[in-house]
Amino acid sequence: MNQVTTRFYLSTLRILSVAMAGSILIFTTTIVILQLEETQTIEEHTIIYRYIPYFFSFISIPISTLLFKNTIGKRTGNSLKEKLIAYRSAHILRVALLEAPGLLAGAMFSISGDWIALIPAPIALLFILLNIPTSDRIIQELELEGNEASLLRDPDSVLY
After folding, report:
1. Model pTM score
2. For residue range 58-69, what is the model confidence (pLDDT) as tens digits?
3. Long-range contacts of 112-115 (CB under 8 A, 24+ apart)
């Protein structure tokens, strides 16, 4: 079995976060470029598309936080390995819930051509980037102390 170091664990979570933020950026940029090539007017029936991404942003941010805290709070074991596995699962869930409104904003902009529908995309990007895991963030969120915190602060320490 390969040993997991702090450096590897954090790199994996950071790559995941940046990849999901990148998917929002690439998708919405592509949609914007395609929309700029077409002149499209907003019809009255498409005005609802403006509000759908806002609704999902409004509910996904608190739900992602709640589910994240709930997931790390329900960790079954006391070992550092079990805590970090629970943290990874919770982080993936949180980032996925934050990514969805950003992608939806791009899709709604594509349908409607309404620039206001695109605003939740940078909000989603911001929340994902603000939640990129660091040793200190993980220590704080998992309430680690002593040896566990020291292990997480040392990038070359073997976590499990």
Report:
1. 0.79
2. 999 999 999 899
3. 112/42, 112/46, 112/47, 112/49, 112/50, 113/35, 113/38, 113/40, 113/41, 113/42, 113/46, 114/42, 114/46, 114/47, 114/49, 114/50
